[in-house]
């Protein structure tokens, strides 16, 4: 890469001590992964009142109409055994119920309970503080744009995203 007069390439920025220079060289998915890890660190059990995995689970489960347990494995990107373990914890906490699918009794539908919705609302409130801490360098307009772009990237993979 040849620098033109007056321009600075990323290696020059990195050697200049600019902390953002190395981020500029990282791919988008690497940056998303790093951002995700910051969220996981900031949103511990003590902050949310539940694990981050339970928070994600409750976000995917609806109170009115259950979702297939198999779908949850795909949506959460975890295998069926770990989904069962996560559901066992959430069920013990009173946040979800598993019921047989009336159409196919071999499968389960997972519904969020009223208690699960209350726990989720409390965790979402706490997550607002986590979001402010993690995205503190972004303006409100940039945060909205980031949200819209992430929704656009996920919509075909997860269905409509809130």
Report on the architecture of this protein.
- By secondary structure, the chain is mainly alpha-helical.
- The protein has a domain at 38-135: Arc Repressor Mutant, subunit A, CATH 1.10.10.
- The protein contains nine helices and three strands, in the order H-H-H-H-H-E-H-H-E-E-H-H.
- The protein has a three-stranded antiparallel beta sheet with strand order 1-3-2.
- The longest helix is centred in the last third of the chain and has 21 residues, at 114-134.
- The radius of gyration is 20 Å and the shape is globular.
- The N and C termini lie far apart (42 Å).
- The relative contact order is 0.10.
- Residues 1-16 have low confidence and may be disordered.
Strand and helix order: HHHHHEHHEEHH
Question: What order do the strands of the largest sheet run in, or round the barrel if closed?
Answer: 1-3-2
CATH superfamily heading of the domain at 38-135 = Winged helix-like DNA-binding domain superfamily/Winged helix DNA-binding domain
Q: Report the major sheet.
A: 3 strands, antiparallel
Which class of the domain at 38-135 in CATH terms? Answer: Mainly Alpha
- Overall pLDDT level: 83
Number of helices: 9
Unreliable segments (pLDDT under 50, ≥5 consecutive)? Answer: 1-16
Strand content: 5-15%
**Extended strand count:** 3
Radius of gyration: 20 Å
The CATH architecture assignment of the domain at 38-135 turns out to be Orthogonal Bundle
- The percent range for helix content is 55-70%
**CATH third-level topology of the domain at 38-135:** Arc Repressor Mutant, subunit A
Task: State the end-to-end CA separation.
Answer: 42 Å
The chain-level structural class is mainly alpha
Principal-axes geometry comes out as: globular
């Amino acid at each position: 890469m040849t620098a033109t007069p007056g321009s600075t390439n990323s290696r020059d920025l990195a050697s200049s001590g600019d902390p953002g220079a190395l981020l500029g060289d990282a791919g988008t998915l690497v940056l998303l992964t790093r951002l995700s890890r910051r969220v996981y660190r900031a949103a511990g059990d003590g902050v949310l009142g539940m694990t981050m995995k339970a928070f994600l689970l409750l976000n995917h489960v609806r109170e009115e109409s259950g979702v297939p347990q198999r779908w949850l494995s795909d949506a959460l990107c975890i295998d069926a055994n770990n989904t069962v373990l996560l559901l066992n914890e959430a069920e013990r906490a009173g946040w979800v119920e598993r019921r047989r699918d009336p159409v196919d009794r071999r499968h389960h539908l997972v519904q969020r309970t009223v208690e699960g919705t209350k726990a989720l609302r409390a965790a979402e409130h706490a997550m607002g503080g986590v979001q402010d801490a993690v995205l503190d360098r972004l303006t409100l307009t940039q945060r909205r744009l980031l949200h819209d772009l992430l929704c656009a990237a996920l919509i075909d993979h997860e269905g409509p995203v809130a």
